[in-house]
């Protein structure tokens, strides 16, 4: 009983974090398919029911892409059940790619670049590394870091600057241009 409650709580938190922020985009996508608002509500409810029936979400790498694919499949199923369906509509929906969802190649590139950035961060001197991690990865403010470490905000700012510069130099030293993967990895790591 407790584990089921924990599973539901964990799933609800995951939905709130990964799905709800993208609900408007999915609704807008349905609306562009000229669905009535009540049909959009019905499809959204069915998509959420599919998510709620999952035993675990550990296998899902990208929550909003998974949710969008459920929504798209529900719409396709609905269209295919209709008596008269414009073939273009099905073709368009089947070939639709969410432009905000990176391709598998982009995901791999970003993941590899992210790992490189994290390796560069790990190579920083201890104090600088810790400050860069707190500021750029964990999102602490300079003031919070300064209070936590008992140093001035200016010292924190300087360590962040030194750390980010060292990471950029380390990246450039390998002779690779800062492509989309590197930029995405830097954003993921909080280094801009």
Low-confidence stretches: none
Tertiary shape? elongated
Q: Helical proportion? A: over 70%
Q: Largest sheet, described in full? A: none
CA radius of gyration is: 22 Å
The SSE string, one letter per element, is: HHHHHHHHHH
> Which structural class should the secondary elements be placed in?
mainly alpha
Helix segment count? 10
β content, as a range?
under 5%
Report the strand count: 0
Rounded average pLDDT: 82
Q: In whole angstroms, how far apart are the ends? A: 46 Å
Can you characterise this structure?
With 192 residues, this protein is mainly alpha-helical. Helix content is 74%, strand content 0%. The chain has 10 helices and no strands. The chain has helices at 2-19, 23-32, 37-52, 63-81, 87-95, 104-122, 126-137, 142-149, 153-173, 180-189. Helix 3 (37-52) crosses helix 4 (63-81), helix 4 (63-81) runs antiparallel to helix 5 (87-95) and helix 7 (126-137) crosses helix 9 (153-173). The longest helix has 21 residues, at 153-173. It is elongated and about 70 Å long. The mean pLDDT is 82.
Tags for this model:
192 residues; 0% strand; elongated; 74% helix; mainly alpha
Quick rundown:
With 192 residues, the chain is mainly α. Helix content is 74%, strand content 0%.
């Amino acid at each position: 009983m407790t584990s089921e409650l924990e599973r539901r709580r964990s799933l609800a938190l995951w939905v709130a974090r990964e799905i709800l922020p993208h609900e408007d985009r999915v609704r807008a996508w349905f609306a562009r398919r000229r669905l009535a608002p009540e049909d959009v509500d019905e499809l959204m409810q069915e998509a959420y029911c599919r998510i709620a029936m999952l035993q675990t979400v550990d296998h899902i790498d990208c929550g909003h892409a998974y949710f969008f694919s459920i929504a798209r499949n529900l719409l396709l199923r609905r269209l295919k059940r209709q008596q008269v369906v414009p073939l273009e509509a099905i073709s368009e929906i089947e070939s639709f790619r969410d432009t905000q969802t990176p391709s598998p190649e982009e995901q791999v590139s970003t993941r590899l670049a992210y790992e490189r950035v994290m390796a560069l961060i790990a190579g920083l001197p201890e104090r600088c590394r810790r400050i860069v991690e707190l500021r750029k990865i964990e999102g602490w403010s300079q003031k919070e870091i300064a209070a936590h470490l008992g140093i001035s905000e200016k010292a924190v700012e300087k360590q962040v600057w030194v750390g980010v510069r060292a990471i950029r130099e380390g990246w450039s030293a390998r002779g690779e241009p800062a492509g989309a993967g590197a930029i995405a990895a830097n954003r993921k790591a909080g280094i801009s």
